Amino acid sequence: MRVSTLATLFSTLLGAATALPVIEKRENTTSSEALGLSSISGLNVTYSSPTNASLPNVVIFATGGTIAGSSASNTDTTGYQAGVVGVAALVQAVPELLGIANVVGSQISNIGSQDMNATIVLRMAKLANEILCSEGSEVDGLVITHGTDTMEETAYFMDATVNCQKPVILVGAMRPSTAISADGPANLLQAVTLAADPAARDRGAMVVLNDRIAAAAYVVKSNANTLETFRAVEQGYLGMFLSSKPVFYYPPVQPTFKRTFDVSNITELPLVDVLYGHQDFDYLLIRAAVADGAKGIVIAGTGAGSQTTPSMPDIDALIAKGFPVVASSKVNVGAVVPDNDKSSFIRAGFQNPVKSRMQLQLALASGYTLDEIRTSFEGILYDYLY
Ligand code: SIN
């Protein structure tokens, strides 16, 4: 059979599966106008679908990352540029989305997530509260497209700060949009489907990649290169997608160790440094962090958060002055367990170092005392143990 005939046969066979969805009852108003989002300050709406009153409403915050990445070669899965494609192009690449929800896209940033920062995450948390949680809001869910490198941090932050039962879904991709078998379009379709689904309510923020749904509070990136990367090793997934429809393993549940913070009066997040534990770790980096203006320190300690003998006098002196030093674990899985006598450094429990950093920033910005910070990290696990 000639190649052109084969191609015709394939396109006929595939026609039904690849046909664009029929979108009915769309009105002339855009979803952004219909939802009253056009006037929200700081919400940079760059895509808005026509409205269909019978569909749920989903807002997408686009921040960049590999899902918006591009490369000259379709075989590149490294060395590409992250954060190139805009939110309108991301949505238009997945027209099936418009059969699922009215979609409003806001370009918050277009960066690799290594450059995500306190200013942007705080702005997103405030905007998310305004859009999702204000009285009379008709927005059903929020999707944040994000680079995978620091997704677990932003996911943790949104989980801790946006709490009105409605879902916040973080989504990314491991392959750029130009790659053969790019994973972004399917991930985005699943994220919007999840955000629009009433079954996603009361579960906190979630991360969606590679057909899996994970709780933001526990998920970590576990592989630098492959699609199978987001895991909650101890706690497991909340659910998965079958034919792009979410299937939950459990009824709605929130993480046991979840702490929530009100960001409405927070205008900036204090500097908190993470120091990496290793053999011969001493006081030098601790002193450098304090001298450079850190308001708190997280040490990614060895094992279950153990600290080296030469570092302990400095750690204890800081704690005695009311300066928070939190010990998490560079192992990333398992708990740093509170001491019975609540002395010396603060133990992070199940919070990994980067999530501990965000929790400490939020606690400091909320005006917590050292004791309150200790309770926010140790309290629940302490009550389990003692
Ligand atoms: C990034 O985190 O922005 C780049 C890597 C990725 O998105 O997978």
Automatic annotation (TrEMBL):
Family from the record: Belongs to the asparaginase 1 family.
Its EC number(s): 3.5.1.1
Signal peptide bounds: 1-19
Active site: 66, 66 (o-isoaspartyl threonine intermediate), 148
Upper classification of the organism: Eukaryota, Fungi, Dikarya, Basidiomycota, Agaricomycotina
Record key words, sorted: Hydrolase, Signal
GO-annotated biological processes: L-asparagine catabolic process
Residue span(s) of domain Asparaginase/glutaminase C-terminal: 272-377
Residues the record lists as binding substrate: 113, 148-149
L-asparaginase N-terminal domain ranges (all copies): 57-252
Catalytic activity: L-asparagine + H2O = L-aspartate + NH4(+)
Name this polypeptide is given: asparaginase
SMART domains: Asparaginase
Sample GO molecular function, one term: asparaginase activity
Species per Swiss-Prot/TrEMBL record: Naganishia liquefaciens
